[in-house]
Amino acid sequence: MKRTVSALLAMGVILALLGAWELYVDLGGVDPLVLPAPHAILASMFDDRALLWSNFLVTAKEIVLGILVAMVAGLGVAIVIHFSATLRRALYPLLVASQAVPVPMLAPVLALWLGFGILPKLVVIALVSFFPIVVTTLAGFTAVDPELIKLMRTFDASRLETFRRVELPAALPSVFTGAKIAIVVAVIGAVFAEWLSASAGLGYLFEQSIAQLLPARAFATTAILCALSIGLFGLMTVAERRLLPWAHQPIGEPN
Amino acid sequence: MTIEAPPHWRVERHDTGGVRVERVSRTFPAKRAAVHALEDVSLHAAPGEIVTVVGPSGCGKTTLLELICGLQRPDAGTVTSAPAALMPQRDLLLPWLTAVDNAALALRARGMGRDAARLTAAPWLERFGLAGFEQARPAALSGGMRQRVSFLRSLLAGKPVLALDEPFAALDAMTRAEMQGWLAHVLATEPRTVVLVTHDVEEAVVLGDRVVVMSPRPGRVVRRLEVPLTRPRRRTDPEVVALREEALEALGVTP
């Protein structure tokens, strides 16, 4: 009930903002080339649906694959760093440095190197998504109660057994948290990668629409990118609740 | 109901099966002044004996247990103990495992297969009054139930010595009294050498064959009490009350 009310309130705010925008463009004499009205954007979404859909599929595939690559690589690097203090010292500065590279500058370099296929996009998306996953996963490993590690030692569990039975499952919710943060940056990464070296995708379509003086289509593209981002975030939340139901219950509290 | 323990569960026999702590000191270096956790502490538990250690916070009780479990080394003195399993103060059950899988954790850590470990643990759950809760996750169990699963988990480690760290401190008074009776009953049917630390003087007297009273920082033994009383004991028994008063007096608490 409460959730329905807050959903309705949020919808109301969005509708009010769209209404104000519509009135501003219609009555304010704004050039539709500068700012298209919401109804024009909606019309473009309908008229260009085939075009939007085919480009949506390209970008969605890039992002989903890129985040999967980042999750596997991020988990792998986090495990390696967790097990070896030496490798932590060796790799951590590199990890931070990888985030310091500006994506708009990286994308053309990668295009030169890796061509115009899906590979440079995957690299850019994986690179920007990787960092939050590594950091949150490492935090998940270190958040395990030291008492639990001691307990496992009195059970004669090896380092690897303790990791497999205690630390890894305990860190899984953190992996999901990292992946949720990663989704948002992955969408930005995908757009940059497509601007510079693509022949398809929502980022590419956006650029083309601006160049062809079709601002309504550009706005429609942006709206669909936002929806993609929100949709992936929602999917990740649902997946987490399904796969790790225990992570959403209060734990360890004495009754 | 009696259940034949499977062969792999049998307690490992050692020449002593007991615990001998001789004139042990343990100091932790700290920034300002070193913390003397234990100073010249001796403690002896014959095989099958229950020794309770009682003292205020900061008397090095947890350090003592970790020395017995081999998780720390003394700075001075010797610790000789048969292999010991720890039972931590908070239950520290793994929230992603069911009650039966939590109880079987030590078996799994030793490399036993999942089904064999469950088959071994399940009859014990029933015996511990947890029938019907085998598949429940910790979040669905009451505090007393969780503590029983936690105790079972340490018991199934199959060690001759159990090191219990304030096992009932987190429970409400009623559940605690109930669990004390339960533990005394379990240990009568499943004898182990037990070192139980607590800050509850009454608990120490009700459960122990012998009580070691300790002073805070540095942790020293200030009194040793023999409890030659039959079980079950009641906290209102005049002998129990007398011993409790004696322990309290040793702790400097005057009525």
Features:
heterodimer; A: 255 residues; mainly alpha; MetI-like fold; 10 helices; 82% helix; 0% strand; globular; disordered C terminus; B: 255 residues; alpha/beta; Rossmann fold; six-stranded mixed beta sheet; three-stranded antiparallel beta sheet; 9 strands; 24% strand
Describe what this molecule looks like in 3D.
The complex is a heterodimer of chains A (255) and B (255). Helix content of chain A is 82%, strand content 0%. By secondary structure, chain A is mostly helical. By secondary structure, chain B is of the alpha/beta class. Chain B is 32% helix and 24% strand. In chain B, the strands form two sheets. Chain B has a six-stranded mixed beta sheet with strand order 5-6-7-3-8-9, with helices on both faces. The longest helix of chain B has 17 residues, at 173-189. The N and C termini of chain B lie far apart (44 Å).
Number of strands of chain A: 0
Main pleated-sheet profile of chain A: none
Gross morphology of chain A is globular
- Give the integer mean of the pLDDT values of chain A: 87
In the CATH classification, which architecture of chain A applies?
Answer: Orthogonal Bundle
Q: Give helix % range of chain B.
A: 25-40%
Write the layout of secondary structure elements.
The complex is a heterodimer of chains A (255) and B (255).
Chain A: H1 2-27, H2 38-47, H3 49-83, H4 85-100, H5 103-114, H6 119-142, H7 146-154, H8 159-197, H9 202-211, H10 215-243
Chain B: E1 19-28, E2 35-45, E3 50-54, H1 61-68, E4 76-81, E5 84-87, H2 99-103, H3 105-109, H4 114-127, H5 143-155, E6 161-165, H6 173-189, E7 193-198, H7 201-207, E8 210-215, E9 220-226, H8 238-250
Parallel strand pairs in B: 3-7, 3-8, 5-6, 6-7
Antiparallel strand pairs in B: 1-2, 1-4, 8-9
Helix pairs in contact in B: 7-8
Brief digest:
The complex is a heterodimer of chains A (255) and B (255). By secondary structure, chain A is mostly helical.
